[in-house]
Amino acid sequence: MERRASGSIEAYYRYTYEKRDCLIKIGKYKQSKNGAGYSLAECRSKAAELATLRRECGGDLKAYLEEQAIARRQQEREKQRQETLAAQQGTLSDLCNSYIGSLKRKGKKSSYQVEKSLKLYVLTPFPELASAKARDITVEDVVNIIRRMIEAGITTTSNRLRSYLHAAFVYGMKADNDPLEQVTHGKRFYIQVNPVAAVPRQASFERVRERFLGHDEIRELWFGFSDALPNRSPVYLLLLRFMLATVGTRPEQLVQCRWSDFNEDLRTFTFIERKGKSGRERRRVMPLTQRALDILQELKPISGDFEWPFCVTGKAPLRTSSLGNRIQEYCIAKEEADEAEEKRERFTPKDIRRTATNLLIESRVPREQRFLLQSREDGSIESKHYDHSDRLPEKREALKRYDALLGKVLKGEEAKLVDLEEYRQATSNEQA
Asked: What residues does the Tyr recombinase domain cover (predicted)?
C-alpha cells in the first residue's frame, strides 16, 4: 500500500525480478464502506491473480502485461480497420448502381435498359443477394438468377442480363484502382474473380431478326401513320420519315441532333456515332437530300424554337423508347383496321434501319458505299481509321440512288430497278 499526499491509498502488487523490486498497480484502496476502490480482500485477490499470471508467463510480469496491452491495442486497431473496410466494401446493389452511374456519365444510351433489367431481374427478386458483398457473389448465385428467368420463359433477355452482370463485375474489378470512380462513389469491391464468366451464354436463345418493311408497308407508314394515330405529335411521323430519308440513321443519333447540327446551305447534318466495342465518339457528316430538307421545313413550325428538331416538350429531346411505343401503337391500329386480312409481323425502330439497308441493296448501291452511308464498320483498316466525313461526294452519289428508289416506292411505281440518269435529271437543281 502507498498513501498519496491527497490522503488516498494505492494498492500495488510487488514482486522481485532479476534482483529488482517491481510494482504493478492494482488500484485505489477503499478506505470506507461507501468509498471508491477495492476492499482489502479484493486487493489480495487481484494480487493472487497477478502472482499466478507471473508464474505462467515465466518472466518479467510487468513487461509481459505491457506487451499484452500493446497486442490488445493492435487488435483493436485492426478490428476498427476491418470495420471501416467492411463499411466501404460495396454490395451487389452498390456494384450495379455504380456501374449504371458510370454508363450514364459516359452518355451510354443503354444505361436505361441496363438499369431497368438489373433492378427487375436481380435486385428486386433477390434482396439477400443485393445486400451481400459483391465479392461474395458466387457462380451458383448467378446461375440461380438466370435460371429463374429461363423458367419464366424469358430467354433472349436472359442473355442480355448475363452480359450486363458480366460487364458490371468487370467494372467493379477495375473501379477499385480508378481514382475517378473512388471520388464518385467511394466504394471498394475487392472482386478477385468474375462469377459470371463461368456461366455460359445460351446461343440457342439468340434470334437473328430479319424483319424489314416491304414497299407497300413503307408507303403506308409514310402516308398513314398520322391517320392511324391522330392524337400523337406529328414529330413522331417526321422522325420516321427522316430516318427513311437518311438511309436508316439510328433514332438515338437523330434525337440528339440540335438545329445547329443541320446545314441547309451545305445540305449536310452532323451527328455523333457511339456504336462499336470501343464506345469511342466519332463525328459523322452526312448529306441531305431535298426530301430530308423538306422534312426539316415541316419540323420548323413545330419545334423550330426548341433546341432539338425532334422534340415534343421543348425541355428534352424525344425519347427513343417513346418512338418505339408509337410504332407499336401504329402496328396495333393497323391490325385492328385490317382484321379480315392476314396480320403482318410488327416492326420496331431497328427494323426501319434494316428496311433502309434493303432499299440500298435494291438500288444497287455497292457494299462499301452502303457501309459508308450507314456509318457501319466493315472491319477493314480504312473503315477503322478513315474519316467518313471526308467522303461526302461518294455519299451523295450513293444517296441519289437510294432516294430515287425511295421516291418510286412512295409513288407506288414499279421500283425494282432505278434509272439513275432519270433521277439525275429530276434532281439537277440540287447541290452536288
From this structure: 208-400
Indicate the pairing of strand 9-17 with strand 20-28.
antiparallel
CATH code of residue 229: 1.10.443.10
Q: Cα-flanking dihedrals φ and ψ of residue 60, to 5°?
A: -75, 115
Residue 120: inside a domain: yes
Q: Model pTM greater than 0.70?
A: no
Strands across the sheet containing 9-17: 2-3, 9-17, 20-28
pLDDT at position 4: 76
What does the pLDDT read at residue 425? 59
Kind plus residue range of the DSSP H or E element containing 66: helix 61-88
Left (φ > 0), alpha (ψ -120 to 50) or beta: where does 398 sit? alpha
Report if residue 210 sits inside a domain: no
Dist. CA 361–CA 212, nearest whole Å: 13
The whole domain housing 361 covers 215-426
Cell representation of residue 45: 485477490
* 107: helix, strand or coil: coil
Tell me which residues of the chain have a pLDDT lower than 50.
340, 379-389, 418, 420, 423, 429-432
**Could you give the 3-state DSSP secondary structure of residue 429?**
coil
Q: 78: which residues sit within 8 A by CB, 6+ positions away?
A: none
| Amino acid found at 92 | L
pLDDT attached to residue 208: 67
Outline where DSSP puts E strands in 358-421. none
Give dist(CA 257, CA 309) in Å, integer: 7
